[in-house]
Amino acid sequence: MPQRLPAIIFFLLWLPLLLFAQKPEHTISSFENLPSRLFFFDDTSSAIYHDSMEGNIFVSPDEGKTWKRADDIPKGAALMVIEHPFDNTWAFVLTRTNTHYRTDDRGRTWRTFEVPIDVALVARPLSFHSDPKKSGYILYQGTVCDRSGWGAICHDETYMTEDAFASKPRKLLSETTRCQFAHSSADFKHEAHPDLIYCVAFDTETTGSSGHSLVSSRLFSSTDFFQSEKRAEDLGIGKNAKGVIAFAIVSKFAVVALKDLSPGSQGDMLLYVTVDTKTWAKAQFPHASSAKLRENAYTLVESTTHSLAVDVVMQDQGTIGTLFVSNSNGTFFVQSLKDTNRNEMGFVDYERIYGVEGIGLANVVANAADVARRGVAKILKSFITFNDGSSWSPLRAPEKDSAGNRISCDPEDADKCSLHLHSVTTPHNSGRIFSSPAPGFVMGVGSVGPTLMPYAECDTFLSTDGGVSWNKVSLDAYKYDFGDSGSILVVVKDEDGVSEARYSLDSGYTWTTYDFGIKLRARALVTVPDSTSQKFMLLGQVALKDQKDGVGRFVIVYLDFIGTRNRKCTDDDFEKWYARSHKSECIMGHKQWYKRRKPNADCYVGDKFTDPVGQEENCACTDDDYECDYNFLWEGDKCVPVGPEPIPADVCKSPDHKYMGSSGYRKIPGNTCTGGNKDDKIEKPCSQAPPAEGAIIHQTFPFPITDRKFQTILVRLKDGSIWQSSNEGYTWVQIHPELKFVASGRAYLITETSVFYTTTDSGRTWNIAHAPTPPNTFRAQVLRFHPDSDKLVWTGNRDCDEVMARSCRAEAQYSRDNGRTWNFVENYVVNCAWAKDVKLDADPTGILCESYRDKLGSQKFFMGNNPLGLVEGSSYFMKKRQLFKQVVGFAKFSEFLVVAELLPESRSLDLQVSLDGVKFATGMFPPSMHPTAHASATLHYAAYTVLESSTGSLFLHMTMSEPPHPYWGNILKSNSNGTYFGLSIENVNRDDRGFVDFERMIGLKGIALANVVVNPDDAAVSGVKQLQTRITHNDGGVWTSLMQPHVDSYGTTYTCNTVSCVLNLHGLTSYRQKSLSTPSIVGVLVAAGNVGNYLAPYDQSDTFFSRDGGFTWEEIRKGPHLWVFGDSGSVLVMASDREATDHVFFSTDEGSNWGEYQFTDEKMRVTSLVNAPSDTSRRFILFGHLPHSTTTLAVHLDFTYLTSRKCIINIKDPGHDDFEFWIPSEERQEECLFGRKTLYHRRVRYADCVVGDRPKYLPRIEKNCSCVRSDFECEFNYYKNDNGECVLSPGLTPLPSDRSCRNGSWYERTAYRKISYSSCQGGERLDLGARYRCADSSDPDEGASAFWFLVTVLGILSFLVVAYGFYVWKARG
């Protein structure tokens, strides 16, 4: 015992010191280069340092205290290192050879494995299975190159291993770009086969292409590692599921990005999403936002398990975006935040706060318009959301600075005094920017004021309540990290060299400085990923002068704070911390709280590698916890039905019975609120139940209607009120009954004031917006739209409040954010519009304005002495130039910009045509057909009409007869650039409104119908026009009469059966049906007309039908009818257009057989029938009015239940399904139309089935044909004689030959030119005359002169070279 007494005394003397906290400890390790990767194995103390410059791997088993190079891996071999995300013992080092390395003990030892091909240089060459039982299942992406000569053709292949490469891997699939297990994410939960694999790969087998064309890139899947099963995912769109760019699993969503390869697409990207691997749905973005995904112009940002978040580039400036957030299945997106900040690499200033539902931080560009307009530097502001992006607010600034003094601005004024933080686009540390798994702790570097200051001028801020409130904890910018579940905060200055770190043990209230003995510039500060350790690694760069005592250029400073506290926390040291305490504590129906150490508790948590567990307390249900049920949608603040509610069979045995149906609402999936009853079933009459199969239903809504829009249908009444139906006419509500609207548009309602209303969700909600001026009362269109974004041009009245205002004028302003902000364009204008159009490839920032020269006085009283010029302004009208001094107007048609230039001296018009809005060419007309300016302005505007054009040429109707004679004129057609116009057809009918009996067929370009006056001489005297119908199948080159049917709809032979009897149809001047064709079924025409020598009056007409593009016709009903197709042609509905009726006719076989449905007891006069714009719905709206009544009725007709059988489509065996491939030329001798044989896909006529949203296959060109006479038309100054030959017009001269050298030769111009829309090749080339080699000439003397001129020039040059050489020789002696 005496021997032990000194030891006891020694211990008692040191006991007080042991009870007090000690300082941190540190060690320093040196490296040659900065790491390309520095990471911990999850939930372990082992770390990896990859020096990619030297190709070496370093391993630390003790959180960075000591390091050792991985000796099992040769020096310089490590190309990349990848840890296993689901097994924290494995990592893989990939090299530039076929030999790679694996560790299964966290880096202590490494063993080799072989793969037959080199690793692909992609971001993620390995893909892992998430099932712990299948952790050895790994996909390896490699590259194979076939070398030929100096080059090589390479493609990627994917290999598969089931034992982490312990055995030889086998090839999975070739021609791949990315393969991934469906089970590769903890959040993506589904019931799919455990071995399901997705691969983005090139389909070289079915396309027959050996190259990697985008059209052959598809998403494939297999459940047997592609041994016998290789399924092409059709994404619900069939063969159109091609052009796949990428595949990714984000949170609980699998997302496929593909490029839209359909005709007319501008390379937009499409997203398809699934949450169960079975059903794919297209991601829908709001129409009014004009959101279009483009390659490398969108980013899938950090998402929740409730919704998917996508940032889309919306501005011309590619570093500004808009954040969209989806619904629970990732398909319908709403705009969350405008003008988000991005960088060139696609990174977005957006980050969710870790572990706390609903909170996120984002930066927006406050001066987005100026950045895109003038290229100025961006000004950023920070915002925070507490409800998953539904709303955003500024970050509340701290009231005091780090020294306890009040800040210089008022935090209550958030516009001028809020906190702004640097974010993802400018990272200054590794890992997450703001938060860590430490509950509620958020740090950032930023500034207080109106906008974000540069990083070097910023300070460091801390929030301990998830971003609700903030404190300034340090002057200057610091790197920061959290340890021991938030009980330790460590910061290191980030602006210059330092040798010390600061740390806080009481949640940032007090700070202590620790000197680690070496001056360095901090590069990163990290700890274990779950922030539960008390040890940190500081990565730094040491200046040469400070590299002493064996310290290298780059160092890891290991910081150990274990000794700073000597007591482990007990239960009394913890408190409940509730998240999201901003406005409401509940989200998704529950409160969320964590157990967190009290700030003043002097203890350490010590739960290393234990993630904080959030606890939930359910909340009482509120309206925010519900969404619309199936078959319902939001309209204002309530859910309304889109049609009859589906109910189980045999529930309703009588219309008098009741059934329990949906309230219209359902609890949001995943919501845990309690006590709500908004989704309880309610009792409904069986009269609201869906009818039996084969039945038709209707519903009538009366109101005095004058205008309408659809699919969400807007109706403007004579009294200026607006009515809306969001369910194809099933129910109607009035929008803002207190206001009167002067116009209505697709998504804009314009009032008589500067206030207008806009909807971004198809009318479910309407938002108030403010224009700079009231709408104009001149002849200018108020709103003009841009095809690529939500840019607007508004033309309104300025200073026109008084009747005799002295300076009343039309003023144009533009907006780039859907009317939120406006910028001045021009004063005293008539028409201002964006230069760019869907097909017109003009400057996207250009604006065109018809602007008066003298900008003084009241525009109401301007006369002809103030010329109207055309001004173009690029860079949003910042750079202006006058295109023409005096114009009548301009318009855009397809790819053409057409300007009517007025020439005052000759009192005539020149037609100026441009394909880019910059270069213009004057339209050349036959001398007798030049558009002449008449004395009367009214007659002047009616002198010509530019017709619809879709085949690369302009069609122009030139009025040749006008009062006192009846109206008619000639149709002229231009060449491909719109400059040379030739006669296409004479004496085409028009009326006094300027409407022309000319219509192109929808879906089949180059086919058009026109009515001609066949008695022009007699009509000029009698005033009575006799009309016949002509049709062209080669874009106006040849016009023929319509072939009459053999029998009428009763099977009776027509009384008119001579060769002069033809079919004649009413056109735009006399038929109330707006179009004779439909986009939903190719080749079909429906029209009212008669068989006879001439066109009979409308009330004496019958209804005719063609399903082969107008080659043959049949009569389908007696009398004229209004008509509409539904469901891609499977339903045809007709209503009499001659008298009042109480019924409609319907056909499911394109008019061969008819049914009849009575929709009213009292007959009404039908004025129109409408469907969705694409004619794909089986629901229709019939508009009409009762006799002797001003009330207009809207009748909703629902043919949905005629049949429930869905059409079968089998592209590999088209003869045995419900569809057919149709060739437009199959009814005539010529095999080709427009120089090619094209197959079109459409429903078989007698297939009684529902097409629905079945994909339509694009037209397929089988082959290009040899040229024949029908592929040509008359050249400029030529006309077609009675024999069908092109001859020179008397007194005119042909155009000179184009001697441009092509393939070493040129051809003399002939009387013919090839139709621009024709793709014929070879054959009979009527447009090519005598051929000359480019060195030849038709004038021998001219060729001789050229030869001697060349000899002379070469002789002179030779003399000069010799003389100069002699001079140099003499000068040098």
UniProtKB/TrEMBL annotation:
Stretch forming the signal peptide: 1-21
Ranges for domain VPS10: 46-691, 711-1339
Location(s) in or outside the cell: Golgi apparatus, trans-Golgi network membrane; Prevacuolar compartment membrane
Annotated GO biological process: Golgi to endosome transport; Golgi to vacuole transport; protein targeting to vacuole
Keywords, ordered alphabetically: Glycoprotein, Golgi apparatus, Membrane, Receptor, Repeat, Signal, Transmembrane, Transmembrane helix
Alphabetical list of Gene3D superfamilies matching this protein: 2.10.70.80, 3.30.60.270, YVTN repeat-like/Quinoprotein amine dehydrogenase
Transmembrane segments: 1346-1369
One GO cellular component term noted in the UniProt record for this chain: cytosol
Chief site of localization: Golgi
Function: Functions as a sorting receptor in the Golgi compartment required for the intracellular sorting and delivery of soluble vacuolar proteins, like carboxypeptidase Y (CPY) and proteinase A. Executes multiple rounds of sorting by cycling between the late Golgi and a prevacuolar endosome-like compartment.
Protein's UniProt name: Vacuolar protein sorting/targeting protein 10
Organism: Roridomyces roridus
The organism's taxonomic lineage, starting at the top: Eukaryota, Fungi, Dikarya, Basidiomycota, Agaricomycotina
